Amino acid sequence: MNYGRLSEICHVANDEYLSCFAEGVDGRVVASVLPMFNRDWSESLLSLHVAHIMTLAIEVDFLQRELYPHKELENPTEMLLAARELLIKVGFFGKT
């Protein structure tokens, strides 16, 4: 019995409770189930994601070189420099 009501409340097709998360006390819409695109947030969050991936790539390269000192491994420097230039272009990194 409890699960049935919980399932009904949480189902996205039922706006009975979903609307509670989209309206303020005075009836104005304060949130949306269809968020608006925000270029600044998108660029900042994507840049942060790319920066973290770059850090991970550097760490993986470092560890692989430590584990396989006699193997010829691909050098990721050129790719990382290109990614860094893109982050500089959007203003995430300052010029170094």
Task: Characterize the structure shown.
- By secondary structure, the chain is mainly alpha-helical.
- It folds into 2 domains: 1-36, no CATH class; 37-96.
- The protein is 57% helix and 0% strand.
- It is built from 4 helices and no strands.
- It has helices at 2-10, 15-18, 39-67, 77-89.
- The model has no long low-confidence stretch (mean pLDDT 77).
Characteristic key phrases:
about 55% helix, about 100 residues, mainly alpha
The amount of helix comes to 55-70%
The count of helical stretches stands at 4
The helix/strand class is mainly alpha
Q: If you compute it from the alpha carbons, what radius of gyration comes out, rounded to the nearest whole angstrom?
A: 23 Å
User: Averaged pLDDT, please?
Assistant: 77
- Total domain count: 2
- Counting copies of identical and different chains, the oligomeric state is single chain
Order of helices and strands: HHHH
User: What is the end-to-end distance?
Assistant: 63 Å
Q: Please describe the biggest sheet, giving its number of strands, its sense, and whether it closes into a barrel.
A: none
Taken as a percent bin, the fraction of beta residues is under 5%
Poorly predicted runs are none
Secondary structure: number of strands: 0
Shape verdict:
flat
